[in-house]
Amino acid sequence: MSKVSMYCTRACPYCQMAVRLFEKKGIDIDKIQIDEEPEKKQEMVDRTGQYTVPQIYIGDTHVGGYMDLAELDMDGELDPLLNA
Asked: Residue 1: pLDDT above 90?
């Protein structure tokens, strides 16, 4: 199983939807809470070039946000990425 990490905030509904999708698949997530660790926001921006959450990584692959994750799942591409 590939490691999943996600830059997120507690109040973000898209972050919560991503968590539910991963929970449904039995995947643990390393949550990087940028609202609790503000210095991690700049790390996220430097790493992804994005300012919005969630920003999801599966292994070293930057998936993007929740809509990108959901699209991968609908296209049948998420499970192979998780199992790589």
From this structure: no
Which CATH number belongs to the domain containing residue 30 in this structure? Answer: 3.40.30.10
Please name every residue paired with 62 in a beta bridge, in sequence order, or none if there are none: 57
Distance CA 23, CA 40 (A): 24
Count the domains in the chain: 1
Residue 22 CB contacts under 8 Å (≥ 6 apart), including other chains: 4, 28, 29
- In tens, the pLDDT along 23-44 reads 999 999 999 999 999 999 999 9
Q: Structural domain of residue 57, as residue ranges?
A: 4-82
Closest alpha carbon to 33 in 57, 50, 9, 53: 9
